[in-house]
Amino acid sequence: MTAWDHRRVLESLRATDRIEADPYATERDRSTLLGYRSIGMEVVVATAPDTQPPGSAPLRGTLRHKSRMEMLQDSYLRAIASASGCTMAKPDPDDGIDWVLTHASEAHTVDSEVDLKIQLKSTSSTLPNPANGKVSVPVSNGRFLKLAQKPVTVNRILVAMVIPRDVALWIAASHDVFELRHCCYWINMAGMAPNPRSTRTTVDVSTSQIFDDVSLCEIMRRIGRGEAP
What we know:
6 helices, Trna Endonuclease, Chain: A, domain 1, alpha+beta, 5-stranded mixed beta sheet, 229 residues, two-stranded antiparallel sheet
């Protein structure tokens, strides 16, 4: 078993603990990992990797956890933007939009270059590929209204990322692949209404809308035709 496989087993064991403690976990969530703790624990004990001396661990810095999560999602977005052929710009100062992507193509009909504004949100309270088919993230009503504004000159989307709680599980590298966990999903919030009884609104992002280079290219293709994302 590789160090990455070992970490996956450990994360699954931690996930069973979170499911048991989560009053909103569905029966499918509970049954999916039923019995895995005893099996997984045996795997961990029997096949613990020897890539590091016993008791040693990477000397990670003291950067606050939220800042690390923001950096990780920025890195995810940069990878997707590069594969899609987009440039990136960060509004200064930040007015509620994290990034502006620009996509140039002769196939666009409204302009040779089109822009897309992106707001990033991340969470560690959701398991990867949740059984309910959605990732829920809180958004302040002020930012909600900015994302939901309609009509607009420059389209906006919200990109939500599921991130493991344990930083050691975020990335893994080998000679032929670099893995980053877990996944981002996107939603076009244009025309949606915030919760009037609170200062924050929970936004449910469907896991059917994975945010990758293919989806970003299709979003930009639609914008280039004068359509919504």
